[in-house]
Write a structure and sequence with these properties.
Helix content is 34%, strand content 32%. With 193 residues, it is an alpha+beta fold. The strands form 2 sheets. Strands 1, 2, 3, 4, 5, 6, 9 and 10 form an 8-stranded antiparallel beta sheet that branches.
């Protein structure tokens, strides 16, 4: 071997590559990130509880009475949440109204029966229905124009908008018409008395 090769070999032996990763530093970053994500989740949960506590004045949701009359309309789809009427970002979380779920909606002469598997069911008496419309968004859910059925109803001293999306969006127009006609007939009956 030539002296140059020996010298290069000696220099190479002296030089060692730097450690590519430090296991301890990597674990510290992973643990730190996990703690940060858990903290953010905890803050979100506390915010949800706080909002529910602020809405504690909302009365309990009515349950469907026994022996409902034959239904006018029925649909299956998704319940996307409830908000204060006219304020599509002011989500109501009290009494489970903030929980998204599947829904089976039934409109009868007695009112609107909202059956939510895995969440709290509720009933809106016909006298409490204020109207329905097609909209594009409610409390964190934005769809195409007219993709959401929004039913406005009174509960206690508060007007509430509840958003539904049918599995067959073509049904929405019939629901808007039926709820609005129902509201008009109830209003006329009340005015005649």
């Amino acid at each position: 071997m030539t002296p140059a090769v020996i010298q290069l070999a000696a220099e190479a032996a002296e030089r060692q590559s730097a450690e590519v990763t430090s296991f301890g530093a990597r674990m510290a970053w992973v643990i730190g990130l996990a703690v940060f994500i858990a903290f953010v989740y905890w803050l979100m949960r506390q915010g949800w509880k706080w909002r529910g506590a602020l809405q504690n004045d909302l009365p309990e949701l009515p349950a469907a009475p026994d022996g409902l009359p034959a239904h006018r309309l029925a649909l299956t789809g998704r319940y996307h949440g409830s908000t204060t009427a006219g304020q599509w970002l002011d989500r109501i979380v009290a009494h489970g109204l903030g929980v998204r779920s599947r829904v089976e909606l039934t409109l009868t002469d007695a009112g609107l029966d909202v059956v939510r598997p895995g969440a709290t069911d509720f009933f809106v008496p016909a006298a409490q229905l204020r109207g329905a419309r097609l909209d594009k968004g409610i409390a964190g859910k934005v769809l195409t124009e007219g993709g959401l059925l929004v039913v406005t109803w009174a509960h206690g001293d508060k007007l509430i908008d509840s958003g539904f999306r049918s599995d067959r969006a073509a049904e929405h127009a019939a629901w808007v018409e039926a709820v609005n006609l129902m509201n008009q007939s109830i209003t006329r009956e009340g005015a005649e008395r």
